[in-house]
Amino acid sequence: MDAISNFAARYARSREEEMSIDEYLAECIREPVFHHGQGGIRDVVHPGNTEHVRGDRIERPQGGAGGRGSQASDSGEGEDDFTFTLTKEEFMQIFFEDLALPNLMRTHIGENPRWKLRRAGYSQDGTPNNLAVVRTMRGALGRRIALGKAPLRELLALEAQLDALLAQDDGTSEVVAELQRRITRLRERIGRIPYLDPIDLRFRARTQVAVPSSQAVMFCVMDVSGSMDQARKDLAKRFFILLYLFLTRHYEKIDIVFIRHHTQAAEVSEEQFFHSTESGGTVVSSALVLLDQIIHARYPQGDCNIYVAQASDGDNFTNDSGNCRQLLVEKILPLVRYFAYVQVAEEEQNLWDEYSQLLPLCPHFAMRKVSEPGEIYPVFRDLFKKEGVPG
Amino acid sequence: MSRVHYPVLERRSGDNPWKAAAVGERRHRSVPNAPLPAGERPAPPLPDPSDWTFALIERYHAAIAATAERFGLDTYPNQLEIITAEQMMDAYSSVGMPVNYRHWSYGKEFLATERRYRRGHMGLAYEIVINSNPCISYLMEENTTAMQALVIAHAAYGHNSFFKGNYLFRMWTDASSIIDYLVYAKDYVAQCEERYGTDEVEKLLDSCHALANIGVDRYRRPAKRTLARERLEREQREQREHYAQQQVNELWRTLPTRPGKEGVAQEHGRFPTEQQENILYFIEKHVPLLAPWQREIVRIVRKIAQYFYPQRQSQVMNEGWATFWHYTLLNTLYDEGYLTDGVMIEWLGSHTNVIFQPPVGHRAYSGINPYALGFAMYRDIQRICQDPTEEDRRWFPDIAGTPWLPALDHAMRNFKDESFIGQFLSPHLMREMRLFALHDDARQSELLVSEIHDENGYRTLRQVLSQQYDLGTREPNIQVWSVNLRGDRSLMLRHTPYQGRPLAEDTLEVLRHVARLWGFGVQIESVDSNGNHPVLLHSVPAPAA
């Protein structure tokens, strides 16, 4: 529908001007005209007087239920409550416009790759269920014509000769008998050409092609130590949800694994992940060790696209941060498509410093800081923007 | 019940299509003093299955047409078309016209209509009438037989005769050429989109639409032009435009004036020398930087806005007239034995909904229902003619007791809402509707009941209600005041407030649209009711190139 494409076009424009979706939605469907605002003097006639006499004073009705209803609608001041519905796909299309998965070489074919049969022309052997009948019959027809043409021409010539002889002759001469013998032989020869020969058979050929996996797993790793309050968890959650939505555009099936940690890490359900409260110190490496274990235990073949989003306030046990970096470099980063670290606090502590060293080494590692809910989406766009598209 | 849309100019005389008929040329048949006698009474009434068939619609139409004829209703030929709900919404979104140029706001309108319809917030109109010649009525497929009869009487005879008779439509619209003009507009806009890009055209249309309501001539009637002439003029304009524009545009004048020969404009230091009410026209003629195609699009929007101008001024009269006639025609048919009781019950149900006037304070109250007011007024005029009281004779000496058909015909032809109410709203009706006037002064915390329906209040009440339908008071009075010729070429608009009413918040946004068209800065100022003490309201800088 036109309105939708229009919407998309305007949306693109609005982002250059840094507007929120709401503002911009209102913006793109407004049709402002000059009209009267509230205030001034209005004399309005209403029907259905039951109790008033001249000079009565009435309290001003709130919300325009009575009083100035008519005036408002007459002069076009009515609410423009127009909204339209986007399907989920349309929304995603707009929401994630210009974003792409980094390192999108998903064609990771592991030891146990997935195969898909593709058509690959015709072959001369195969099973009967794959017989290409039309192809086969076409070949047979060609073969029959090729083999039969020369004898047929000869046959026709002989028959013409015979007819000529018979016209002058009584048909008892040796020449006629000889001609008749040759004609019979030719007829037999033509008759022996098979209607269908094994060499005519053609079968539809299929070959197996390895296809990239359309499965993905997303690990959400979150710090639940005492320093992570509800607001920070909320920030982390928003980021996880964005990432999840984004991944659903690219993969058919996505598993999510929730890992939370304080000094110890545990795999938990979504409910527990976001809502249970625990406190304690922070040892980030515990989560990374568990992450590595889970990857090896459940997604060992490497045919699954692995994404990790880690959220923390960066307040790690001091000696542990170096450990974390080591774990990432040696064990985890080689296995995953993308690792995003989001720090939901402003101050840079040792974890941030250690992780920063990874940036030049690993292109599929990214880290950002977020401190307001409003920053999540920009940060997200920033992480996944297509190359060459201005943020 | 109906959404009526009617652009239109004057019907042309048939023999010479290039020559527009003079306004007064079209003679209407004289209206009989009383309905002509009915024909033979039909033995069985018309069948009334709820599903209509084309044959059945024909029969109903024939009966209604014959009855309308007896009342002397003068109409354009009728063209009835059956459409689906989807098509009805489509027609809604192109402001009721069968064709229109492309613009996203129509898509918005369509989606909004569709959404409300799907959720059951609104029923669709049963029909749409287009003021064209022949008069096209769209009937909705899902109407029942009884509803189709109602709609035919309402649209094809009520509205149709109003279009043909009322002076506003006779003067301002041309029923026979509007469709052609819209086709032309659509093609032209599409061409521009192709040549200059959809974005450019869309922006331009957005800006023009923002000004469409003040892009009409209120006093000067547009010259009638045939489409061919319109095209020719456009070509001429385009050819000479580029050259001429740079030569004569007042805004570009840099020649030093000879001493003693100063132009009027410079003497008074103001251009234009008089205020201009039609802002779009002023823009079309005087904008320094618009390309010829942009001027043409401004013109198209302006012309179409002008076509719709009469409609906005005659809603009460038009709807009331159509409602009065479907009521009268169908009742007459029933009396003569054409309609069954079932049909009567069904259309009366719809009729009652349409003319329902919730009293103030009622949950459904949203001002005066134009159907209710219009219908009641025509019925009241009929009553005054047929059965006048002493009071009526005092108030309406010229129509009390006279034949009602000519009186109604006169009332329909020669008024618009404002003057119609000012002339014909009777004390009897004011009492019946229990009308009262509220004085709402924003500076005070309470509303004052200024007039009620009693002997002392009738005249003022009538005047207040009449003013309520005056477009001049409903829409802000904004005119072009001046252009800064010596400086930055900025345009100054002047708002003259009515009753101290301020402009609404989105004025600034509209101003941006004006600036986009004008190409330089735009300001708007407000003056007091005497035209003095201008106060600058908003100022918009020149749009970035």
Gist of the model:
Helices cover 42% and strands 18% of the residues of chain A. Chain A is built from twelve helices and ten strands.
Describe what you observe in this structure.
The complex is a heterodimer of chains A (391) and B (545). Helices cover 42% and strands 18% of the residues of chain A. Chain A has 391 residues and is of the alpha/beta class. Chain A has three domains: 31 residues, no CATH class; 78 residues; 173 residues, 3-Layer(aba) Sandwich (Rossmann fold). In chain A, the strands form two sheets. A six-stranded mixed sheet of chain A has the order 7-6-5-8-9-10, with helices on both faces. A two-stranded antiparallel ribbon of chain A has the order 3-4. In chain A, α7 links the parallel β5 and β6. Among the domains of chain B are: 103 residues, no CATH class; 118 residues, no CATH class; 65 residues, no CATH class. Chain B starts with a strand and ends in a 5-residue tail after the last strand. Chains A and B meet through α1, β1, β2 and α3 of A and α3, α7, β5, β6 and α19 of B.
The portion of residues forming beta strands of chain A comes to 15-25%
Please trace the helix and strand order of chain A, writing H or E for each element. Answer: HHEEHHEHHEEHEEHHEHEHEH
The most extensive interface, with participating residues per chain, is: A-B, 51 and 71 residues
Mean pLDDT of chain B: 81
Q: Which blocks of ≥5 consecutive residues of chain A have pLDDT under 50?
A: 1-9, 11-20, 64-80, 104-112
Please report the number of helical segments of chain A: 12
Average of the residue pLDDT scores of chain A? 76
C-alpha Rg of chain B, in Å?
A: 26 Å
Count of discrete alpha- or pi-helical segments spanning 4 or more residues of chain B: 21
Distance between the termini of chain B: 47 Å
- Contiguous runs where pLDDT drops below 50 for at least 5 residues of chain B: 1-27, 261-268
Under CATH, the topology of the largest domain in chain A is which?
Rossmann fold
Largest sheet of chain A: 6 strands, mixed
Shape of chain B: globular
What is Rg of chain A? 40 Å
Strand content of chain B: 5-15%
The CATH architecture of the largest domain in chain A can be named as 3-Layer(aba) Sandwich
Q: What count of domains describes the coordinates of chain A?
A: 3
